[in-house]
Amino acid sequence: MRVIAGLGNPGRNFKGTRHNAGFEAVNALARKLSVYDHKVKFRSHVFETFAYNEKIMLVKPQTFMNLSGEALRYILAFYRLTPEDLIVVFDDVSLPAGDIRIRKKGGTGGHNGMKSIIECIGTEDFTRVRVGIGLKPPEAPLIDYVLARFAPEETDKIMAGINTAAEAVLKILADGVDKSMAVYNKRLTNEIADE
User: Fold this and answer.
1) Residue 89: strand pairing partners
2) What backbone torsions phi and psi does residue 116 show, to the nearest 5 degrees?
3) Fewer CB within 10 A of the end CB, N or C, for the chain?
């Protein structure tokens, strides 16, 4: 069984914000896997299906970003899964809009959702797919930037990146992380490493 978690904040006020790119990636994955009904359990919205010879659980934690790890800890424990069974998709202010980056493990990168997950499951060793939401201007407060909606001129790029992130997750499920990294990762001179 594999758990794919997209991070975001629940509620209408947060819909369409940069910080909800992970939620949008899970929505894109659900469409690609033809799963349209979700359940509310594990303090999350959960889509379940069977693909690539295993059960797939798509998860949008409803605990708010800073407590994302609480829902995922419960899911992993309930199904007796390991962190290696988890893939997390989340927004990244250190990547240009629309770029993605796959990692096998790493630090928080200053992302509070990732901080919560690492604290709750006790390891950094799980796969993550970072979705670029545009480089934060130096003068912009981080919280204001990530909770803002996409500017019209960048919406197409970011939505394309979200779709690419969903495709990358499917590639990971089909072919593994290493092959997926070779296909989807780009070298970015201005990237801030999260390792």
Assistant:
1) 6, 129
2) -65, -45
3) C
HSE toward the beta carbon, residue 153, CA cutoff 13 A: 1
Residue 19: active-site member: yes
92 and 18 Cβ atoms separated by less than 8 Å: no
Name the active-site residue from 19, 38, 45, 111.
Answer: 19
**Contacts with 179 (C-beta within 8 Å, 6 or more apart), sequence order:** 171
pTM: 0.91
**Domains of the chain with CATH codes:** 2-184 (3.40.50.1470)
User: From CA 159, how far away is CA 181, in angstroms rounded?
Assistant: 20
**Number of helical H runs and strand E runs in the chain:** 6, 7
Which of 116, 108, 104 has its CA nearest to residue 92? 108
Q: Give the H/E segment covering residue 49.
A: strand 44-51
Measured between alpha carbons, how far is residue 185 from residues 75, 81, 130 in Å? Answer: 29, 27, 10
Tens of pLDDT along 110-124?
788 999 999 999 999
Per residue in 71-93, pLDDT (tens digit) is: 999 999 999 999 999 999 999 99
